[in-house]
Write a structure and sequence with these properties.
single chain; about 25% helix; 4 iron, 4 sulfur cluster binding; DNA photolyase activity
């Protein structure tokens, strides 16, 4: 992978070059908890990241690789829960829903669609207001109690690659385990499962790994 990383307990842990904090979430508990994990990493507070993005796009030959070395902590505004964007006219929808708590990925697989899809904002963005997500999910699942929801977090990132840094799973798993009409799917290439193994139950949790032949892993997955 392009950015620095370290190995802890056989898990590859993300190590950013800089942490960029949205001023509106500067005092959020998850922001503070994340920053404390990186005492030697510079922290910058911003109201907008437009200038940072333009600088990277102008000066870097690898916009995607350079951008993801910067971890952005911010707030997601609007609805977290969305229907799977893969649904198209003439196709049968599998009724899959996506939640994007992170945008971009610490990995750098050559074939990943994110290489182009996030070119307009190549920064690694994490949304800290998970309490708003849980409130939205609770309301939606309760309002539509006769419907089964399949929800995944791996559309715009690897679901678990940053879980040791920003442990969303510690709140998501207990929440979904209490629901009778919802399951949560983590899609990952990582071995960052420590937070999952520490849960008392994962009855409504699905973990899926994408696997390739070793030659593809060696040549294309970083």
């Amino acid at each position: 992978m392009h950015m620095a990383s370290l190995v802890s307990n056989n898990e590859t842990v993300f190590l950013p070059e800089a942490i960029l904090v949205d001023r509106s979430v500067a005092d959020h508990p998850l922001t503070l908890k994340t920053i404390l994990q990186f005492p030697d990493i510079p922290v910058e507070h911003h109201s907008t990241l437009d200038e940072t993005i333009r600088r990277i796009q102008k000066t870097s030959n690898d916009t995607f690789g350079t951008g993801k070395r910067n971890l952005v902590l911010t707030r997601f505004n609007g609805s977290f829960l969305k229907k799977c964007p893969g649904a198209s006219p003439g196709m049968v929808c599998c009724n899959y829903y996506v939640v994007n708590l992170i945008k971009n990925c610490m990995y750098d697989c050559s074939y990943c669609f994110l290489q182009d899809f996030l070119n307009n904002n190549p920064l690694l963005v994490a949304y800290v207001n998970i309490e708003d997500l849980l409130k939205e999910l609770d309301q939606t699942f309760s309002t539509h109690s006769d419907k089964i929801f399949r929800v995944g977090t791996g559309e715009l990132t690897d679901s678990l690659a940053l879980d040791q840094v920003i442990p969303y799973s510690q709140q998501l798993i207990p929440f979904f385990n209490k629901r009778e009409n919802a399951v949560l799917e983590f899609k990952t290439k990582s071995n960052c499962v420590k937070n999952l193994l520490n849960q008392s139950s994962t009855k409504n949790i699905i973990v899926s790994w994408s696997l390739n032949p070793q030659v593809i892993i060696d040549q294309e997955e970083k």
